[in-house]
Amino acid sequence: MVMIVVAAGLLVTSAALHLDLWSSGYRSIPTIGPLFLVQGLVTSIVALVLVVTRRLIAVVASIATMSGTIGGFVLAATVGLFGFHDGFAAPFASLSFVVEVMAAVLLVSAGALIVAGSLRRRTFESPGHQVEQLFDDGPASVLSIRR
Description:
Blueprint (H helix, E strand, L loop, with lengths): L1 H22 L8 H22 L2 H22 L15 H32 L2 H11 L1 H8 L1
Helix pairs in contact: 1-2, 1-4, 2-3, 3-4, 5-6
């Protein structure tokens, strides 16, 4: 839970940095400007969903968001992206990169812990016990087994 909350904070930090850059001039850069706005808005929403649900699917969506952001930065810093070339000398570039890598590492770790915990619980519950729960508890137990 702590990893997820810290990762969500890092996601929000990345979003805030992108929105700040968008509002301070990046909005006028074709294609890149709208992408900075989208990154800021989507990453904020993903961070909220991550904290509220604490589900593996939200972790995976967060990892995808950070991977895309990091990938976009690496492309822009090396070969260019949509005709735009920017590097670590750009405003907040180093800070953004560190925040996004830290978020990705925490998210991958949290996802691994969630999967390991799920596998551990399933190991302790025999298939016969899971079937008994289906018939004893009704439809609510079906939802718990799918998680």
